Amino acid sequence: MAIKNLEESQHNILEIMKREPEGLITKLTTVVDEALKKRSAVLKLAAKKQTPFYLLDEKALDKSIDEFMTGFSKHLSGRPYYAIKSNYHPLILKRVVQKGMGLDVSSGRELKFAIKAKAKYIVFSGPGKTDEELRLALKYHKRVIVHVDSFNELKRLGNLSQKSHKKITIGVRFFTNYHLGNKFGIPLDDLREFWTEAKKYPYLELRGLQSHFSWNKDSEKYSKMLKLLADHLKKYFKPEELDEIHFIDLGGGFYPKQIDGFYPWTGRYPSHMHAGALAKLANAEFGVKTEFIDPYYIVDSKTPEEYAELIGTVVKENLSFLKNCIYYAEPGRMISYSSMHIVVKLIDIKKSSVGITDGGINAIGWEFGEHFYMPIINLTHPSKEEIPFTLYGSLCTPRDVWGYYCFASEMQSGDVLIIPNQGAYRYTLAQEFIKAIPPVYVLK
Predict the structure, then answer these.
(1) Are residues 215 and 351 in the same domain?
(2) In 3-state terms, what secondary structure has residue 8?
(3) Distance separating alpha carbons of residues 331 and 65, to the nearest angstrom
(4) What pTM value is reported for the model?
(5) What is the distance between the alpha carbons of residues 254 and 251, in angstroms, rounded to a whole number?
(6) Which pLDDT tens digit goes with each residue over 371-419?
(7) Strand (E) or helix (H) holding 248
(8) Boundaries of domain holding 348
(9) Collapsed DSSP state (helix, strand, coil) of residue 202
(10) Is 252 exposed, middle or buried (CB count within 10 Å of its CB: 0-12, 13-18, 19+)?
């Protein structure tokens, strides 16, 4: 997009900055308060152990599990399945199973994790399951429900089950016009045909449906999908077939309430180009530094109970004709986000507002700090107010950025910093790039 002149560019920037519908401008004081409660214990651990490291916080994990299970059970009858892909650390899996949750797996590798964690209830989701993975599911058929992703997968699993003479419960994943893309599952319009086709395989017991949305800050998409599903079932399914539906799996994608955010030049979704990015590019064309009105925006999502309340209302109003049906959910991020924190040390200060830590972003996957706001707290010199401070990691790449602000009274070499609530999709995406993946220590 060409910008005619600097004046037009600046005018467009002002117009863009007037519109910020997705984010809440606030300070994460509750996140800071929780981090400071752990200050003494973390500083003692950092004095004994080499930084960087992950801090596994069992107390915070228990709180997340309890809040989800209590919140959902108030409005929906069913069972939550923790999504292993968000964090597969064995202590986390052990704890969610002890608390009564099932496990949601997306591969044979994760299925082995679930078996090792002694999970009694397992759902196997995801596209492209291999025959080897399906055989493993059949081996544990009394504990596993397979969410079939396609007609071809139905045929392969049907033939494998017949050869093994093992009956297994299955669901079918579907998508609607409210979903992004068609990678996962079958179109809702094909559900009638799929139900008929599944009856050809005597060892497959089709008992439910699954649908999933990602990056949800409320239940609006679930509401629309369930109403559409209700209309479809009433139109195309016979009463006796409706009685065969024993569960509807709502998937996961529930975003936690006010734990992080995004910068004006990025968006809430990793794949989206944000208006601020266009403004920044426009100014860069003229060699002008872009100054944004607000430093960042906090993602303001719902609590577990708030998510469940709307879904439960929609179920009562639209799906009460399903007499034998209960409801599953597959929370991942909402359970694991608080289970781990990252602890690093400030080892070099380039100038008053730029520093280098001893840990790099290989610990969280890639480029999260550059594009998404994560609160960073200086435990050595704490404060409930942020100061501008660009914090880099120690990897030999300019993209190794933790963030641009820190809750601190001052910044000195040797300071211990904590980046809280990094348990979801950080440990699982960590990679040995230049440096090793940091160790995990349990917070006592």
Answers:
(1) no
(2) helix
(3) 10
(4) 0.91
(5) 9
(6) 889 999 999 999 999 999 999 999 999 999 999 999 999 999 999 999 9
(7) strand 247-249
(8) 23-55+339-442
(9) coil
(10) buried
